[in-house]
């Protein structure tokens, strides 16, 4: 429910003050869902909806910084999305290229491309690589831009990477079979070296992950928000953090 100003601001401040700093997530994954439905409900083009959604990203990264989050993974485009009608896909790719370039130009956050870049158009893959290179020395919030990302594809890529490595050093199939364990997958994921997501947020009311961080989210907490991504507010973000802090995390135990 949207509260009228100034009650909304008061509620937001109280909500922020109630969050326990010691119980904030280190890594948040966000499924940016609902741009097209927001556009339809607003009577504008899908491209405009994607642009409005892109404008929200900087806000969410700033809110994450404020509460001490270290890593944010943003699912901007799935591998399934690559099969969309070119008339819709092309403007979306342009929006992604633009927003990644804008985030990199701020030099406030370290950007890492997460996904199968070989499946993307050359210009999109190059835009992501440029953003990585331009922010490689930035000591700030780590932002994973998941573009052309699919959880099953990531696991398959991790296994391929593991097998290639051992083929190069001459490990036999029998040795691999005897020594292979879950840690070997983790060491070859797109997010290797990063903490797994503590909290995954999905907007638009959909209550499924769709393969997002399929391996890494085994022990994550999930929060599903009714708001479409362009309408996602700081109060929605704070509510997700409050819900996270109130849960008893068993981590599989």
Automatic annotation (TrEMBL):
Enzyme active site: 33, 81 (proton acceptor)
Binding site for substrate: 34-38, 50, 78-80, 84, 202
Annotated EC: 2.5.1.-
Keyword Ion transport: no
Alphabetic keyword roster: Magnesium, Metal-binding, Transferase
Domain of life: Bacteria
Cofactor: Mg(2+)
GO CC aspect terms: plasma membrane
Binding, Mg(2+): 33, 221
The record's free-text note on cofactor binding: Binds 2 magnesium ions per subunit.
Gene Ontology biological-process entries: polyprenol biosynthetic process
Enzyme class: transferase
GO molecular function, one term: Z-farnesyl diphosphate synthase activity
Protein family membership: Belongs to the UPP synthase family. Z-FPP synthase subfamily.
HAMAP family: ISPT (MF_01139)
Quaternary assembly: Homodimer.
Function: Catalyzes the condensation of isopentenyl diphosphate (IPP) with allylic pyrophosphates generating different type of terpenoids.
Protein name, per record: Isoprenyl transferase
Organism annotation: Cellulomonas shaoxiangyii
Highest classification ranks of the organism: Bacteria, Bacillati, Actinomycetota, Actinomycetes, Micrococcales
């Amino acid at each position: 429910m949207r509260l009228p100003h100034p009650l909304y601001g008061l509620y937001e401040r109280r909500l922020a003050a109630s969050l326990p700093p010691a119980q904030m997530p280190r890594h948040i994954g966000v499924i940016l869902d609902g741009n097209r439905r927001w556009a339809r409900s607003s009577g504008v083009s899908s491209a405009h909806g994607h642009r409005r959604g892109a404008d929200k990203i900087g806000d969410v990264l700033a809110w994450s910084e404020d509460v001490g989050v270290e890593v944010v993974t943003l699912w901007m485009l799935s591998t399934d999305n690559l099969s969309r009608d070119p008339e819709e896909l092309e403007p979306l790719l342009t929006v992604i290229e633009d927003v990644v370039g804008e985030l990199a130009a701020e030099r406030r956050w370290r950007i890492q491309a997460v996904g199968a870049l070989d499946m993307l158009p050359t210009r999109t893959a190059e835009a992501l690589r440029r953003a990585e290179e331009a922010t490689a020395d930035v000591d700030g919030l780590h932002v994973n831009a998941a573009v052309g990302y699919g959880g099953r594809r990531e696991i398959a890529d991790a296994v391929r990477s593991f097998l290639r490595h051992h083929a190069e050093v001459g490990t036999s199939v029998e040795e691999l079979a005897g020594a292979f364990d879950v840690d070997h997958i983790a060491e070859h994921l797109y997010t290797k070296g990063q903490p797994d997501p503590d909290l995954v947020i999905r907007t638009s009311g959909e209550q499924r992950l769709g393969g997002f961080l399929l391996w890494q989210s085994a022990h994550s907490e999930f929060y599903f928000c009714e708001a479409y991504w362009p309408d996602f507010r700081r109060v929605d973000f704070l509510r997700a953090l409050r819900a996270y802090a109130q849960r008893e995390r068993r981590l599989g135990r």
